[in-house]
Amino acid sequence: xxxxxxxVEVRLSVGQCVRxxxxxxxxxxxxxxxxxxxxxxxxxxxxxxxSAQRAEFSRAHYTRTLQFLISNINADWLQLLTVxxxxxxxxxxxLRGPPDQTLLVLMDGISSMSSPSAGLDRLVSILERxxxxxxxxxxxxxxCQGTGPSDSPQLxxxxxxxxxxLPDLTANQLHHHNKTLFLPQQYYPLLARDMLTVLERTCQAxxxxxxxxxxxxxxxxxxxxxxxHIFGVLAPHLSSCTLSDMVWQRVCWKLLENxxxxxxxxxxxxxxxxxxxxxxxSRIMGNLVLKNKKAQFVITHKLLLLQYKYETRVLSxxxxxxxxxxxxxxxxxxxLRSLCQAWANPSAVRHTPLEQQLYVxxxxxxxxxxxxxxxxxxxxxxxxxxxxxxxxxxxDSSVVRVRRMGMVVGxxxxxxxxxxxxxxxxxxxxxxxxxxxxxxxxxxAVPSQAASVAQKSGADSELDSDDELTPYDxxxxxxxxxxxxxxxxxxxxxxxxxxxDPVRVDLSLRAIEGLVRxxxxxxxxxxxxxxxxMEDRYNTVGFLxxxxxxxxxxxxxxxxxxTEYLTTEFYSMNYSIRQRLDILEVLILSAQELSQxxxxxxxxxxxxxxxxxxxxxxxxxxxxxxxxxxxxxIQSKTKRLSKVGSKPTPNRYAPVAGHFFFPLLRNYDRPxxxxxxxxxxxxxxxxxxxxxxxxxHLAVNAPVATQMGRALLDFVWAVRYHVDQxxxxxxxxxxxxxxxxxxxxSLLVELSDQLFETRAWLAGENTGQNNKxxxxxxxxxxxxxxxxxxxxxxxxxPTV
Length: 800
What we know:
Number of strands: 0
GO molecular function: Hsp90 protein binding; telomeric DNA binding
Number of helices: 41
Subcellular location: Cytoplasm; Membrane; Nucleus
Largest sheet: none
Distance between the termini: 97 Å
Family: Belongs to the TEL2 family.
Main location: cytoplasm
Structural class: mainly alpha
Pfam families: TELO2_ARM, Telomere_reg-2
Radius of gyration: 41 Å
Shape: elongated
Helix content: 55-70%
């Protein structure tokens, strides 16, 4: 009889074992059959199975054998075995065969079994032992050696999915009965340690002149980085191993080169966040950024310009990696140019989030700090152009933090370039004076400086202290001045114009407000002109507030000529943005003071809230306040016999309201060389609209209120879709002021067409909370057509 080939012998033997286990009820027969199947996995010297038979069993019959065992996990013959026999024979078939086939069969078996059940518990226990016994290391190492059977791309992808998604698959099946080892916090570090073991074996094989393939390990690494972060374990070990071992460096470089492009971004992102130094990243990555276009895009563009969630440490490591090697430094220059373009782009300043602008600014400063002197000299003209253009874009913004960011970056770039030995320096406190609520960063340094000065003075005072002497109470003492304060306004004017004595200028500045309010002045316009152009030459304490108080006093006591001068100068040439904003501030404070009732000279009017440029500028900044306004409007229109309405009281603002208001609308559409209100000066336009809205609000019950409301609505209607959010929100504020201040009959008669169009605009699909506030104010007026017809908002639905 001719001898059988190994594949036929194995097929016949396995078929006989399957039939025996299916029909037998004898313990000895079952035990012998399981021993026969186990012998195909035993490669010891005493084994009677040839290597060809073992290979054939692993290739064609091992997976079917395991599937047969799982399908008969509740069979009667399995109950005949003792616990040690079941662990050795039944479990041993899962733990001693090819690990890739075992993992696939176990995961499929766990997913297909009902939960909870004894069979599921047994498979989970085997999977747990599979992971604890290092079978994942065997799986990865077998793929590196290429000794396993060749498989299809679909089978390899399935194996990768089961290997990486094991925590998800087990959690979906086991729910609250899941094992701790299967949790992501435990499994992914285990997988990372198995990968490190395989990489160590690869290094040893290379030293022994043996070939290895890292393709499967690289694919597993890429897919694992998408599912979980494993570089927390990999990065420290790779950093230490590559410190002095060139073989380890070559293995790491080859590992990253084999990562598929669809997972490369996740790998690079995780590694950049896990390493602690640029040189460590350079040893692990090598020049991958020069060899792989996807890696170059991620490192030089996406992580720097498109994402902004990483810490400054990550930026430092990323840019330091580009600066580490001479071949990578051209990419550093390329990144610098991209950062300069992004930082100086006016559109990016207006439309990107503030956090992203801060992120780009940090990256730009770090990149400039890594330049050598030769590179800095070569790029000086580009950096200077970036600095000037970027500062202009930032200073034109209506957001305080954006302007402050532009000043800080401009100072740092100027200091690094050292242009002609002169360094750019902003007076940050002066620039932020109109925005005390938002100016927090510069003031944070003051307490620390004061503490250091106090510490030094305290140390000096300990040397001269004398505990026996009781100090005098000097808390009420005032500093004696040799110069007398001025008694006439012309003396103040002369001091401002010609005096070089700081004490005299200081005394004049402190005395001028009281003198103006006590005496009728014939030089009010001249004083206003001098104060408007006056600079803090002597670093006077409280200079801004003193100058502003004096200008307000002049405007209040001599309203018509001073107001005419200020409103005319607002549109004149050769004025800075700060001076134009000062004019608006003075007009607001003066109008507020004039609007107080004549009968109530001791305090502000109870009917008009005190509003300045420091109060919330827009309805959306203080939603509670506007809800109260709406509620008061509703209550005021409700008829109650027991409540008596308040009567308007005369004030000094109503007769001169037109002098404050109408000249500001005179030349807004006439651009000048240094001032373009409807062009790039968005900050001034937003402040102007807000000022007009406040002037309109203070003119409630004034005879000229109707004309003011009609003119203001015509003005703001043209800029309601402005690109700057400050201007758009100022339009909403102005509309609210018109609704609150104009009489109801005037709204209907004078603004009938505009009113319907305004209501349709406010009730549009894209309106936000501020628009709903304005619309609610419109609905609360006594207008004949106001009916709760809108499904979104009506009087029966007062929610804003």
